[in-house]
Amino acid sequence: MSGFKTPYPDYDVLKKWDTPSWNEQTRAVIKRRLDEIPERRFLSEDEWTLLEAIAARLMPQPEREAPVPIVPWIDEKLAEDRRPGYRYVGMPPMREAWRQGLAGIAGEARERHGTDFRDLEPDAQDALLGAVQRGEIDGRQWGDLPADRFFSELLLKEIVAVYYSHPAAWSEIGFGGPASPRGYVRLGLDERDPWEAEEQHV
Fold first, then answer.
1. Which residue, among 54, 46, 68, has the nearest Cα to 171 in the 3D structure?
2. Tally of CB atoms within 10 A around 166
3. This protein's superkingdom (predicted)?
């Protein structure tokens, strides 16, 4: 479990809401991200709960009363088949890769531990995900999907991207959100615009 503590404990990016930093389009996008969490449309209930358990290990949020929702936004992307415009060589199409990858992790948990991934102790979950990341897997569970590439190029990348698209994560890292329309002026090393967060070293 990460011992990370934000150097911006008093910063709240949402205080920019009615300032020149954000325009109406920015506010509309952020409002949807906060208030209109997508419901399950693509993943099965078992796939959804499995992915929630995986996300909780790859992006732990023990300090949050209301964790940043991750799985709903991945599900929405899959339901709408929003692809990046390219496909990795040797990987099946995005939707098929996600289904195979989640089935592979579920199969590894059953093969190694005789139970569902979400029922494993955290250390065992971490060890299993580490094996997937390194490609140390039972090939029977994965078919033609490279486990290590699924982990790095889809699973981990998407979980981290969704997390850091949320305002709560922006506050945590001192990010001011989209630069439209105000923009950023002071771009040099250790330079900070007056409306940017200031680190607190304790």
1. 68
2. 18
3. Bacteria
Measured CA to CA, the distance from residue 20 to residue 64 in angstroms comes to 29
Question: What is the dihedral angle through the alpha carbons of 76, 81, 163, 43, rounded to the nearest 10 degrees?
Answer: 50
| pLDDT, greater one: 90 or 161 | 161
Least Cα distance to 144 among 91, 102, 95, 86 occurs for 91
Q: Which residue's entry shows tokens 């486990």?
A: 147
88 Cβ contact partners less than 8 Å away, ≥ 6 residues apart: 149, 153
**135 CB-side CA count, 13 A:** 8
Number of alpha carbons in the 13 Å side-chain half-sphere of residue 154 = 28
pLDDT at 47 over 50: yes
